[in-house]
């Protein structure tokens, strides 16, 4: 763990500027939901000018400004102009997804011989991203975090026993923090009153050339993953854990998405190659060659849903932008989809007295100038 943090710190860059900003967090009103709930926007800024904006609706990352190799800042995540955009969002942009991210087959599972039926809110009668009103569509409690070396926001939420069909009262905390090494970290914890299934993720869409710059075919991706999960026509894992060798899903070497995109439609869970299951491990390196921006992702989760927005069509985004197929990529760190119905997958069961914990770190830097 310490070696990983040291490695990421070494590759993180420090943008010099005559008007360097300070490490700070500020709050502002972001309007109200259609139900009249107040929404607050939090702005995190580090001394390099990297700026992350978050709202307590869905514990959502709405904007992320990072510099390119020439010091020009662009917003590298997809988003909307206001709360109305996020409430009507069809793509889960930037939000926290739960109680169970991804798919659960036939919208049901069994715990201790008792069957629990969930909302069948996805094609084929399956369950997706926590149901009809998942964590993405809830207003969370929020509190600013101010530390010597990081600023952030702590979001908390209570999911009632039986909500969307899940057993147990779930207490959830998600904390985003930004430091001066250009690391945006996301830490999750959850406890329950009854045995239940938990699988949380963060659903940002990244385009390192800028959210409105077109498709991500030119992005170069490297994944520390030797296996992936084949799926059926509805994206539900078959139960097989397959090698990426000789398939379009092989990103073990840095590969342009354009080289593979004609052969592979990317909406699959990859298996992170790691020796210690609970250790934060380097997962991915994404490079946008023209801007020189680099994003490095590390996580303690066993899998990542690699999604290149293949289902996105004419979504009206921020500042008049229109988002289309392959507009961005997601690296949704998580447990495997449909784990409640796949006994060969790492368990997602959470019992009373236990604490679910997860950590993912995004580090941003740039390639050297040409």
Quick synopsis:
It is built from three helices and 29 strands. It is mainly β.
What would your notes on this structure say?
48% of the residues are buried. The chain has a single domain (2-366), classed as Beta-galactosidase, Chain A, domain 5. The chain has helices at residues 2-11, 83-87, 257-261; strands spanning 24-32, 38-45, 51-55, 60-67, 73-75, 96-97, 103-104, 108-111, 114-117, 127-128, 141-146, 150-159, 170-179, 183-192, 196-197, 201-202, 220-223, 225-228, 242-243, 255-256, 267-272, 281-288, 293-299, 303-307, 315-316, 322-323, 330-334, 349-350, 356-366. With 370 residues, the protein is mainly β. The radius of gyration is 19 Å and the shape is globular. 5% of the residues lie in helices and 40% in strands. Strands 11-12-13-14-29-23-22-17-20 form a nine-stranded antiparallel beta sheet. A five-stranded antiparallel beta sheet has the order 1-2-3-4-5, with no helix packed on it.
What are its keywords?
Beta-galactosidase, Chain A, domain 5; five-stranded antiparallel sheet; mainly beta; nine-stranded antiparallel sheet; single chain; 3 helices; 29 strands
Can you summarize the main beta sheet? 9 strands, antiparallel
Low-confidence runs of at least 5 consecutive residues: 5-11, 13-19
Instruction: Classify the helix fraction into a percent range.
Output: under 10%
Give the integer mean of the pLDDT values. 94
What is the tally of helical segments?
Answer: 3
Quaternary state of the chains:
single chain
**What would you call the shape?**
globular
Q: How much beta, percentage-wise?
A: 35-45%
Number of DSSP-assigned strands: 29
Structural Rg: 19 Å
The number of distinct structural domains comes to: 1
What would you say the CATH architecture is? Distorted Sandwich
Strand order of the largest sheet: 11-12-13-14-29-23-22-17-20
Report, as a whole number of angstroms, the end-to-end distance: 33 Å
Helix/strand-derived category reads mainly beta
Name of the CATH first level: Mainly Beta
CATH topology tier name? Beta-galactosidase, Chain A, domain 5
């Amino acid at each position: 763990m310490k070696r990983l943090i040291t490695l990421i710190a070494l590759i993180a860059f420090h943008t010099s500027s005559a008007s360097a900003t300070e490490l700070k967090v500020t709050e502002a009103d972001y309007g109200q939901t259609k139900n009249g709930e107040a929404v607050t926007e939090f702005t995190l800024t580090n001394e390099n000018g990297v700026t992350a904006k978050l709202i307590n609706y869905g514990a959502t990352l709405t904007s992320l400004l990072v510099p390119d190799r020439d010091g020009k800042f662009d917003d590298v995540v997809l988003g909307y102009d206001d709360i109305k955009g996020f409430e009507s969002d069809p793509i889960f942009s930037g939000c926290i997804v739960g109680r169970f991210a991804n798919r659960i087959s036939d919208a049901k599972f069994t715990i201790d011989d008792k069957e629990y039926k969930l909302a069948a809110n996805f094609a084929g009668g399956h369950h997706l991203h926590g149901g009809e009103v998942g964590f993405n569509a809830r207003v969370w409690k929020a509190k600013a975090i101010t530390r010597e070396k990081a600023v952030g926001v702590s979001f908390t939420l209570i999911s009632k026993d039986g909500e969307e069909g899940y057993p147990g009262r779930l207490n959830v905390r998600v904390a985003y923090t930004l430091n001066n090494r250009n690391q945006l970290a996301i830490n999750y914890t959850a406890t329950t009153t009854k045995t239940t299934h938990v699988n949380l993720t963060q659903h940002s869409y990244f385009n390192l050339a800028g959210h409105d710059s077109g498709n991500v075919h030119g992005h170069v991706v490297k994944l520390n993953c030797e296996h992936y999960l084949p799926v059926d026509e509805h994206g539900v894992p078959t139960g097989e854990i397959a090698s990426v060798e000789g398939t379009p899903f092989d990103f073990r070497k840095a590969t342009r998405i354009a080289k593979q995109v004609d052969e592979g439609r990317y909406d699959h869970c990859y298996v992170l190659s790691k020796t210690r299951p609970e250790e934060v491990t380097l997962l991915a390196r994404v490079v946008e060659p023209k801007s020189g921006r680099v994003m490095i992702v590390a996580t303690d989760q066993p899998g990542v849903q690699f999604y290149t927005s293949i289902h996105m069509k004419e979504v009206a985004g921020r500042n008049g932008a229109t988002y289309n197929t392959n507009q961005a990529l997601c690296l949704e760190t998580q447990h495997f989809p449909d784990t409640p119905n796949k006994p060969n997958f790492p368990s997602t069961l959470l019992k009373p007295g236990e604490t679910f914990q997860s950590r993912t770190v995004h580090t941003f830097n740039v390639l050297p100038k040409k």
